[in-house]
Amino acid sequence: MSMDAVFKALADPSRRELLDRLHARSGQSLNQLCEGLSMTRQAVTKHLAILEQANLVVTLKRGREKLHFLNPVPIHEIASRWIGKYQLGPLQALADLKTSLEEPNDEP
Amino acid sequence: MSHDRFVYVTYIRTTPETLWDALTQPAFHRQYWFGMHIESDWAVGSPWRLLFEDGRAADAGEILEADPPRRLVISWRNEFRPELTAEGFARASFEIEAVDGSVKLTVVHEMERTGSKLIEAVSGGWPRILSSLKSLLETGEPMNRGEPLRAA
């Protein structure tokens, strides 16, 4: 699984929006994901394929439904590559501070 | 039935047999599971316990399915945070598939309820454990070694 594929997949705002939606609610069908989006169903399908290739989205069959899940492992691998093991705690504290100061802004 | 369910997938350059050993042998666990290890004989119906370095149980459950080196399913209950223990048993499954010279590991952790604090707590831990496992099997060095794990 190449890191290039992960960065390319993340380089598009529509794909990041899909990841945001899966982060908010893990395990959604294509219909659920399309609800309230300005993208066509075709575009969503195309973006999901790119996210799946990058291993950022994985699917599971549950009954007749195919559910989409955000897979956080590749993002963790990217973070681990450049973040030293002792820096994670302070960085998380900074990220939490930024989130609390910027609420309710949805844009990360 | 509504579920809280998280899925984690990683591709590791190894063999299904080695990955199975890494998931089931305490000597492997200690290297990538932040000093913790699991005790079990991995037979269906047997208990398992994830132990802190000091011997306290973090989580425990029962082996529900074991098909080495392909599939492992276990029940999973937190044992050290009363509010999480009260949620009862979740289910964790591990699927191992050989894919193009690599092995795909899929971990599904789920509970038949919504708003599960246990599933939320383990969601912070799995990406770190799996990245560390991948690093260990591919390079011989785990990731973030020695960092304490706060998740369930």
What does this structure look like?
- The complex is a heterodimer of chains A (108) and B (152).
- In chain A, 58% of the residues lie in helices and 11% in strands.
- Chain A is mainly alpha-helical.
- A two-stranded antiparallel ribbon of chain A has the order 1-2.
- Chain B is of the alpha+beta class and 152 residues long.
- Chain B is 28% helix and 38% strand.
- Chain B contains 4 helices and 7 strands.
- Chain B has helices at residues 16-24, 26-32, 82-85, 117-139, and strands at residues 4-12, 37-40, 47-51, 57-67, 71-78, 90-99, 102-111.
- A 7-stranded antiparallel beta sheet of chain B has the order 1-7-6-5-4-3-2.
- In chain B, α1 (16-24) crosses α2.
- Chain B starts with a strand and ends in a 13-residue tail after the last helix.
- The mean pLDDT of chain B is 91.
- At the A-B interface, α5 of A face β1 and α4 of B.
Task: Supply database-style keywords.
heterodimer; A: 108 residues; mainly alpha; two-stranded antiparallel ribbon; B: 152 residues; alpha+beta; 7-stranded antiparallel sheet; 4 helices; 38% strand
